Each structure stands twice: as structure tokens, then as C-alpha cells.
Amino acid sequence: MLTHLSICNVVLIEKLEVDFSNGLTIFSGETGAGKSILLDSLGFILGSRSETSMIRQGQEKLTVTGIFDLQNKQSPLYEILQKNEIETELFDDIIIKRTLDKTGKSRIFFNDCPISLKLLKQISPYLVEIHGQFDNQGLLNPATHCHILDSFGNYGTELLQTKENFKIYQTIQTQLDNAVKIHHNSLSEQETLLHYQKELQSMNVQEGEEDTLSQKRSELMNAEKLIESFNTAYTSLEGQGLASNIRHALSAIERVNHLTNDKYQNISKILDSALVELDEATAEIEQASNSIGLEQGELDSIEERLFALRALARKHNCSINDLPHILNDISQKLISMTQNSDEIALLQQKLKTAKEAYQLSASLLSQKRKIAATLLEQKVQQELSFLKLNSAQFRVKIECLSTQPTEFGNDHVSFEVSTNTGDPFGPLGKIASGGELARFMLALKVNLAKQIGVETLIFDEIDSGVGGATAQALGNRLSKLSKTVQVMAVTHSPQVAAFSDTHFKVTKESVQGTTFTRLKKLSEIEKKEEIARMLSGEVISDEARAAADILIKPAF
């Protein structure tokens, strides 16, 4: 709850320090005294738009500081702070300070830690909720009605399950969309890939084939020279009698060994080995010479093969040696395309299963909502009788959406009212008048106080347009609401003010040509006098004081 507010140099307020307590706090005062400045200042530290016109004349900067005692230690506020890397120890007080200078520069601090305006707007809904007579952020906005009903119904398990099933459904839907997109894109190139695959397979390119063909081509182009050289080598070995000479030498050495008891056996081995190798070399030369063909047709065939392979390599912008890898890549892509079709079929089945699970949880959630809607209608109807709206009726309309699933299920929730017997139901904001709307809103807040997740509610003249017993009923329900959350109300109604636990009076005075707004906490006697003023006007009569006394006593 809000425990302290400090305002410096805001319009007519030069310096203001005020402490607040729980219960019902009332602000009263003449029109134009500056009650709106208090609300604007509070709105400023809650993230409302900053205007340099708020800075008090003659000053360079304004400062507003609010201190809050967050009693709900399970508040989602802590999770928001943690996500934004702000210390999340369970501190006793939250201090929000915001400044604005004449250049329009604004600075915001959360417990002395600088934060952004965006983060402030995320934090503030868990601290204070401000309602005016024509508030359009809550009841008048149908987008909030489903959340309000869910908060009242307290069926978090069903709501969480629906959100989780929706997330699964959405994830699979995204995967399926991506797979279908890939499949459609691949279809356009599949025909081309199949053509390339067939062409490469028909060529049957072998690893290292270019080198083999080039070498063979070189041999065929130089066949005559090669044969001539081989013949020369063969003649040199065979025709010069080398083999015969080696044999004679070997025979002579063997005779020496016979006489020397094989002393020179090693020479014999060398000569014998030379004779064997000479025979082998001669045979190899003869075989190599015979292996070289002289057919022009074979050369033409090799050159045609090389030409075709080089053309195919240019088409794929690679070397001939890379063509087998290109074929493998193309084959893998075609396999992937087939697998993509299988993946689409699998995802379609998964999506069907996920949608069925979602629809089941959404159906259970819808049943819970209908039960909660009936109970909320009953409770609000009871409050409406207290608030002097006996002829009015309130209903929660739940319609099934025919559009895509949402994380909140298939229901569209809207609050409708009929303000008079026999009148048709219609949207709350269009059917109810300002005073009626305020009472409908209060009837809801009384029933939702424990679920709304905010610790301070501020009402700005929601009693406008009503008086007498109706205003007294409003005060009674505000008092009831303040037993659960801290409630503050700006009012001109003495019937409402009579229910206050704490009463502040806002006044405006001029000192030496300068105007100031003052805030004074009233004693019980001063409160009685202020209510008498509100009843009778500037001149307070004894009758007004007696009437004020009557108003205050039934309130307690």
C-alpha cells in the first residue's frame, strides 16, 4: 500500500510530505483547490505522461517520490524485477522517485536504481490502480473482462493447462508452416536436381578419372616415340651381349671360389642377381612396348570423354574430381526432400493431437468460466441492491470464438447490463450512465478485491451524479472494500466522506501574490466540520453540523 507521498514543485504545490495508512482515505475540498494535482503527481510516479507544464512556475525541476509497503510477498512484481536484473530480495519498502526538468528530461528510480519508463509501467499496476468516473481501462474495455472473470473464478490449474497446450499447439503449427514452406520451395528445384542426378549418374564419373585419362591420352599422343625409346632400350640390353658377358664373368668367379673354398661367394651372388634383374628389365621393356597402342580410335574416345567431363564440371562450377561429390550432394538433397514430405505428414498428425488436447483443456476452462460467471452475477447483483440499483441487472456473456485458438481458450467474455426492468442488455459502457457505471464498477471491485493483485485503489469522484442514499451506499461499499485493500477517494459527497478512516482537506491559498495548494489531515472534529461544509456550503450552520454528526455515526 502507499505509505508516503512527497511532492516538490508540482504546479501549485511547492513542498508536500504526507503519510498514509490503510483503510479508507478521503480527499475533499473546493473545486480548483488542487485535488487533481495530487492524483496527477501520483500518476506521474506510476508512469503517466510527463509534461513540463507540471513544473511550478519559477522552478527548474519537479520531484515526486512515493513509498509503498508491498504486503503481498508473492506479488508478480518480484518476477518482473528479477527479469530486469533488479535486486529481488523481499525489501520492506518500495521507493519510486521520478524527476522532470524544464528540458523535458525525466529520470526514474526504483529503490535508488535507475529504471526505464517502460519498466515503471510494468511495475505500477501491482502497486496502485486509479479509477475515475469515466475510467476506460477496466470495465469499459471488453478486452479486460475475461481476465477479470478468470481472477474471480480462481481456476488457475485449468487456465495454466490451456496456456501450456496452446503453446505446444502453436510451436507445432510454426514447425509445420516452416516445413511446408521448405517443401514448396524445394518442389521448384526438384525437377532440376533430378535432371542433374540422372546426367551425373549416366556419366559415372570415377574418383581420379581425369588424371588417369590425361595420362593415357599423353601416352597415345606420344606412342611412336615411346615405342622407339623402348626398342632402343631393349636392343641395348639384348643386342650388346650384356647377359652373355655377365654369365662369363659369373663362371670365372665360380672357378675362383672353387679354388678358394667360396671365399668370393658374395661376388657370385651379385653377378647372379644382376643377371636376374637384367632379364626382368628386358621382359618389362618388351611388355611396356607391347602395351602401347597405336589406334587413333582409342585416342579420340579418350578426348571425347575428357571434353564431356570438363563441360559437366563447368556446368557445376567445379573440377572433374569434384563431380562425384556433387552427385552425392544432389542425391542427399533429394532424399531430404522425401524426408521433408514425411516430416510434414508427422507434424500434421502431431498438430491434430495437440489441437485435440488444447480443445479439451479449453472446454474444461470454459465450463469453469460459466460456473464462475453465474457466481459473479449473483454476487454483483447483491451489491447492486446495496448500491440502490434494484432495477438493474448484470450478466456475464460468454461466447465461443470461431477464430484461431488463443492461450486463454475459445471464450469471448463481456459484461452486459440492463439498468431498468424490461430494458435489453447491452455493453456496460454504452448502457450505464456515469453514476451507474461507478456503482457497477464498485460492485465488481468489492467482489474482486482479493484477486485484483493491487494493494491500493484510488477513486476519483466516482460519486459524481449521485447523492443522498445512493451516495451513502457508495461510501458504505468503499468502506467495505477498504477492509481488504487500501482505498483512497476524491469526493464532493458528504455521505461518502462520512465513512473515512482518514480525511484530508485540500485547500488553496495565496501568500504575497503566490498561490499554494495545501493538504491537511483532519481530526475528528475537523472532519465533522468539513462534512458540514460539504452539506451547507461556505456558511456552516448548526443544522449542517448536526446533519454531519448523523452521517458520521451510522458509518461506524
Give a quick set of tags describing it.
Rossmann fold; six-stranded mixed β-sheet; 54% helix; alpha/beta; 556 residues
Write the layout of secondary structure elements.
Blueprint: E1 2-10, E2 13-19, E3 24-28, H1 35-45, E4 61-68, H2 77-83, E5 94-101, E6 106-110, E7 113-114, H3 117-123, E8 128-132, H4 145-153, H5 156-203, H6 209-221, H7 223-239, H8 242-259, H9 265-291, H10 296-315, H11 323-386, E9 393-400, E10 411-418, E11 426-427, H12 428-431, H13 434-448, E12 456-460, H14 468-481, E13 486-490, H15 494-497, E14 502-511, E15 514-521, H16 524-536, H17 542-552
Parallel strand pairs: 3-13, 3-14, 8-12, 12-13
Antiparallel strand pairs: 1-2, 1-4, 4-5, 5-6, 6-7, 9-10, 10-11, 14-15
End-to-end separation: 23 Å
Please name the CATH architecture of the domain at 1-127 and 454-556: 3-Layer(aba) Sandwich
CATH fold assignment of the domain at 1-127 and 454-556:
Rossmann fold
How many helix segments?
17
Q: Based on CA inertia axes, which overall geometry fits?
A: elongated
CATH superfamily of the domain at 1-127 and 454-556: P-loop containing nucleotide triphosphate hydrolases
- pLDDT average, as an integer? 84
Top CATH class of the domain at 1-127 and 454-556: Alpha Beta
Biggest beta sheet summary: 6 strands, antiparallel
Which structural class do you get from the secondary structure elements?
alpha/beta
Pick out the low-confidence regions: none
- What is the CA-atom radius of gyration, in angstroms? 49 Å
**Reading side by side through the largest sheet, how are the strands ordered?**
2-1-4-5-6-7
Helical content class: 40-55%
Strand content: 15-25%
Strands, total number: 15
